[in-house]
Amino acid sequence: MTHFRQFWFAGVLTLAALVVAFAFGGPQTALIVLILSVLEVSLSFDNAVVNARILNRMHPIWQQLFLTVGIIIAVFGMRLVLPIIIVAVTANLSIPDVIDLALNDATTYGEKLAESEVAIYAFGGTFLLMIFLDFVLDPEREVLWLKPIELALQKVGKLDQFSVVIALAGLYLMHALAPEEDSLTVFVAGVAGLITYLLVSGLDSLFEASMEEDDDSETVDLAPNGKMTMELFKAGVFTFLYLEVLDASFSFDGVIGAFAISDEVLVIALGLGVGAFWIRSLTIFLVRAGTLNEYLYLEHGAMWAIGALAGIMLASVHYHVPEVVTGLIGVGFIGLAVVSSVAHKKRHPEEDDDVATVASTH
């Protein structure tokens, strides 16, 4: 039960947010904040699972930074500041003008943000697609969930950089399907998403490899004075950055969908921020409770959910997909993965957690 203590602050924060919302806008505003929190959790549940897989190999101090500094970035950076920057760039407005719109003309701000969704979906969809492809195409991955499909994908994955080829092909298709006035935006934003993924994941892999080559890599820790050493900094900084970009890609859908529920920017930030904190708390819980090892296919379900979300975001360049569908697909994949994991444990009671540990290392 000690692992559930990770959620106590999220619960307190939720109550505080509801009290603030009730004080300023009455029961209707409090209800909207609660609905937005649930929306954020449903859209980002698979994000928590993927985050947990990555955090498993990070030092506890980086895990704590993810929950403290990371949540500030998630709430204020990704769900409040980033949309303002996107609107400023795509609508060719100054930052002060966009802030003025957000605070005093929320309807127009929401419309400007909706006009930016083509670029948002192309960037986020391409970034998430690369995460999914690099997972399912990995020929060295030993634990398979949807075996016939994943075996076939692993064979294809033996071709070097084939994930990039698929992503570019998908991006070209979206570029061709997009309205003429949006086609260039789709292409540029998609390429930016691809470059961002390759850069961040590449730097992370580079520093991870250098740490493994270091004889003292397994004892990387704080300095005697309690401060972070350069080795510990290098071991986690790019992974931390990768997690924040991943969070941004997930947050786009929630921010845009939130304007269908409310046009008050601060109310949206409050609701999505509470939901984001629940996701962070869930991530830490999954790490410290060893849930990924207990449920063999949980990571697989999350990755397939990310693949589905990537497809939905890219398709949203041309078609509208309701947020409820996106959320249900993600939760559905994870639910099926949990059921499959439980069934596997019943069929193979002789297997211990060493088998499951293989999944968390690939």
UniProtKB/TrEMBL annotation:
High-level lineage: Bacteria, Bacillati, Actinomycetota, Actinomycetes, Propionibacteriales
Pfam families: DUF475 (PF04332)
Annotated source species: Nocardioides acrostichi
UniProt xrefs under InterPro entries: DUF475
Official protein name in the record: DUF475 domain-containing protein
Keyword DNA repair: no
Keywords associated with the record: Membrane, Transmembrane, Transmembrane helix
Segments traversing the membrane: 7-25, 31-54, 66-91, 118-137, 158-178, 184-203, 237-261, 267-289, 301-319, 325-343
